[in-house]
Amino acid sequence: MAEIRARGIIIKQSDYGEGHRMLSIFTEEYGIIKAVSYGVKKAKSKAAASSQFLCYADFDLYKGANKDVMTVNSIDTIDGFYPLSEDIKKLSLCVYLSDITYSILGMNNPDARILHILLNSIYALAYRNENIAKVKAVYEMKLMCVGGYMPSVHECASCGSGKVFAFDLLKGGMVCRDCGGKYLVKMDKNLYRAIDYITSCEDKKMLSFNASEELIKSLGSLTEQYIALQMDQRYASLDYYKAMLEM
Ligand SMILES: [Zn+2]
Fold first, then answer.
1. pTM of the entire structure?
2. Digit-coded pLDDT (tens) for 31-56
3. Rounded to the nearest whole angstrom, what is the distance from the C-alpha of residue 193 to the centroid of ligand 1?
């Protein structure tokens, strides 16, 4: 058995057997990994309080014969993002953000940049009074950019012409009138500027722009459709998040 130490955040948890918990941890060093935290339901378990969704920590893990699942030995919590545990809307958004991160990255594929933009977004939700729908839309777009789906913004995604007029969700970016297909989202100046900003700004400044409620709405509609179409996936956690917003 080999012991490893990794820094990361728990992006999924589920019950496992009698009193244990299966965790998906997005670590800096190893990407998203699976690990079992044994005995978390016992009062004396040291790892119990920390084996929670969104716990950001240094994890001591055992890598045994089962290469796919590690064992949690101990957890040194850095930040539990506790304000989120009291806000079901923000919490359900974090579940969705974790889902799309997994679908872009898969298992065992380290990507420090994606980890950092995810942590920035979770931090903004927990500790800053950032608009929740804005955090969602911006993370969706930035994740696509960093994860290999950078949309073409200034030139037509099909022919390279500079005369772009709408965003083609399937072709992956702005297109000209000749190339536009079935999945077009019309642009106005503000929406175009917001996309231009998010796709080109430094990661840590991804939320540093002003946007009206209306702009956030049209941006969020575009970004969620862009991910769903490119990943060819429907996210139940997105539906759940939306249902929570209605409450
Ligand atoms: Zn074109």
1. 0.95
2. 999 999 988 877 666 677 788 999 99
3. 20
